[in-house]
Amino acid sequence: MRRLTFGGEMRFLLILSISFAFLVSTKGVHAQSTQTRDERIAEAKEAFDLGTRAYADGEFETALTSFRRAYELTSSPDLLYNIATVSDRMRRDADALRAYEGYLEARPKSSDREHVESRIAVLRDAIEARRRAEIQAEIEAREAAVDAAARVKAERPLTQHVGPGPGPWITIGVGSAALVTGAVFIGLGKRDQKKVETAPAGSSYSLVQDMADRGPKRSKAGVALMSVGGAGIIGGLIWQLTGGHEEAIPEVSIGPTGISVKGTF
């Protein structure tokens, strides 16, 4: 960057000698400002001086902010050169390019046009190179992801879930039958007990005694059968839902030596 001094090589706005004619030419820009002309001049000079000192001290962020503030207050194209130079130094290529182009547009006959045009060419090349590098990096990342997925697929053969077969349904069927049989036995036991309780006077003792002994036994057997049947149904359902295994799908490949098939048969 050229030295930021009044009268030096770098083009900049000489704040102390801003003319009234320049302010008039830019009054549309500041029409809404509540500052007076002298206040804008003073603030612009202060911002410019701060930017000059900050640049000399290597504080480029402060310098850039200060020059931009001075440009907002004055709209001087010369300050675009300062902004471009600091942005260029900070490798903010897009910002530097816009500022350089704005400077040349406003100062097409500038004595340093050749230098500015050379920087514009360099910046455009750098921006394009970075754009291509980013595109290439994205392409390579996608290709790497595809290759990784292909390797995983090649290392881990395709599989399919094979169910547990008819076993669970047989278990559920047997359990259901036991459940129904148990319910029947409980019903018969209750019927025998009811007949004993309602037996008419003069009934055969042996017949009544036989029903009295048989009723509780049938009820107990029914309860046992229903318990076994319920357990069988629940076990069969769990077996059906959690049973089975993964089985490799046969892979067929055609090569120069013929057809090969890989898998479990």
List keywords for this structure.
265 residues; mainly alpha; Serine Threonine Protein Phosphatase 5, Tetratricopeptide repeat; 2 domains; two-stranded antiparallel sheet; two-stranded antiparallel ribbon; 7% strand; disordered N terminus
Coarse shape: elongated
Order of helix and strand elements from N to C terminus: HHHHHHEHHEEE
* DSSP strand count: 4
Q: Determine the structural class based on helices, strands and strand pairing.
A: mainly alpha
How many angstroms separate the termini? 77 Å
What fold name goes in the CATH topology slot of the largest domain? Serine Threonine Protein Phosphatase 5, Tetratricopeptide repeat
Supply the number of helical segments: 8
> How many domains is the backbone divided into?
2
Supply Rg: 48 Å
> Largest beta sheet, briefly?
2 strands, antiparallel
Low-confidence sequence ranges:
1-32
Content of β-strand: 5-15%
Helix content: 55-70%
Strand order of the main beta sheet, please? 1-2
Mean pLDDT equals 78
CATH C-level category of the largest domain: Mainly Alpha
CATH homologous superfamily heading of the largest domain: Tetratricopeptide repeat domain
